[in-house]
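Hello, quick one for you while I still have it in my head. A protein chain has come my way and I'm curious about its shape. I'm sending you its amino acid sequence along with the backbone structure tokens. I'd be grateful if you could look everything over and explain what you see. Here's the protein in full, and shout if anything looks odd to you:
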Amino acid sequence: MKEFLYFDKEPTSSTHFNRSLMFGESVFETFRYKQKLPVFFSDHMRRLESSCNFMGINFPGDFYIESLVEKFVKNHESEHINNIIKDLIVKVLIFSSGGSSYGDLSEKSSVCISIKEDDVKSNHEYSLCLSKNIKASFDPLNLHKTSNYFMSVYEKRIATNRGYDDALFINEKNLVVETTAGNFFWIKGKNVFTPSLKNGPLPGIARNIAIRACKSNKIKVYEGDYEPGSIIFPEAMFITNAVRGIIEVTNLNNTTKPTRTNKLFPKIKETFYSLLEWR
């Protein structure tokens, strides 16, 4: 999958985003662009603004970012036939520049828009192993999407080398957290379960949509403390993220597999994609 990078101001030197390069001081949001901005675009902007405030990076504003995304998507020249592709993955990155000492403040910000053309059918069934390294539940960075993403990269590589698609993070209390790129849910009986935010998962946009989808179907969602061994004979397990939507998990660490009785899962998926307006 090719990636195309567009900048609000053409970088003239590395000092244009020196603090991002040297200290990982940058934040991002990623979403699907299906011929229009996502329905929950404002939610992405609120989280991006919160992350900028946390890192002390100037947030350029919703309208500015929206105008950049629309401009670069419109002017993007696809290599596909007739220059038409209906499905894009868009990442908005806010870079930081400023003093060269790590304790210095960010002085300016710049915006990079990444566009990937997604015309390949994705794998809708995943296998997960448990992570080799723990994810600390008390880390304040858990609430933000930063460019310091290496732990997820590292665990993804380990999982792939072991023959799995992804890894499920466990925290210092041996409790389930999330995968390297999404929130984790499972269905048992008439209820849906997902790790509590206090255990370290990102408060994902798609996570919130999944919870809304459950409530719309009068399905109870329990956000709590769960060890991997407590996930026994689920109807379904699934991952949510803003790019892939819902990904079904068919194997957890070669110890847990879903019954796939399809009692609640189809209803949740249908409502989830309806809320996203994905057709």
Notes: The mean pLDDT is 94. The longest strand covers residues 106-117.
